[in-house]
Amino acid sequence: MYPKRCPFCQGISSKGICDDCRKQVVKVGEIKCIHCGKPLEDETKEYCRDCERRKSNYEQGRSLWVHIPPVSNSVYRLKYHNKRYYAEIFGKELADEFEFQIRRWGIQAIIPIPLHRSKMRKRGYNQAELLAKQLSECMGIPMEKDVLYRIKKTRPLKEMNGEQRHRNLKGAFAVSKSWNPRQNILLIDDIYTTGSTIERAAGILKKAGVKNVYFLTLSIGQGI
Question: Which end of the chain is less crowded, N or C, counting CB atoms within 10 A of the terminal residue's CB?
Fold first, then answer.
């Protein structure tokens, strides 16, 4: 009954992302941090400033687009305005772009970054889980959503600096005791900014017995 609409301009498009918007969105290019995948201005650097100064719990991560309009606006609508069908489009985009990378990492299970139960009740869905589900279907790799739990209600991260995010997320996650850990896990989230959420989640998964943790997100901030 309802025509498919582009997640960026919201115009009718049978292709999902329309041709005009596909030309406008900024994909992460070749000049990026070799660890987290943030785009870099200085092509002589291998790591962004965040990755240079910390030891990481995850092995590597990649993101599809730079977190600027129209991508940032679309991600916001996915998260807060019930545009759940965007996840189907975006999940397929992740699969198309990163299929080779996912196979190379040897991923055995896909795990979405969870919401706290209070946020889940309020929002009614977890956008990371929707993305992970679509990616799982495209790749034929199981999604395991009842593995990682957010046990602490954290404050919104968007207005915090790196140190504040780190403290805010301390003790935020737990892993199901009944879970049989995989060797290679792929975490899925919508946005990567400082990496605090991914770091905490990866750390608790490794304590549970996971050997290698990787991540994919839709969008990512720019590095220096």
Answer: N
Structural domain contains residue 13? no
Residue pointed to by tokens 């750390």: 203
- Residues forming beta bridges with residue 104, ordered by sequence position: none
pLDDT in tens, the chain (224 residues): 677 899 999 999 989 999 999 999 999 999 999 999 999 989 899 999 999 988 999 999 999 999 999 999 999 999 999 999 999 999 999 999 999 999 999 999 999 999 988 888 899 999 999 999 999 999 999 999 999 999 876 655 555 545 555 555 666 799 999 999 999 999 999 999 889 899 999 999 999 999 999 999 999 998 76
Residue 135 belongs to what domain range? 26-220
Asked if residue 100 belongs to a domain, the reply is yes
Residue with tokens 């990755």: 51
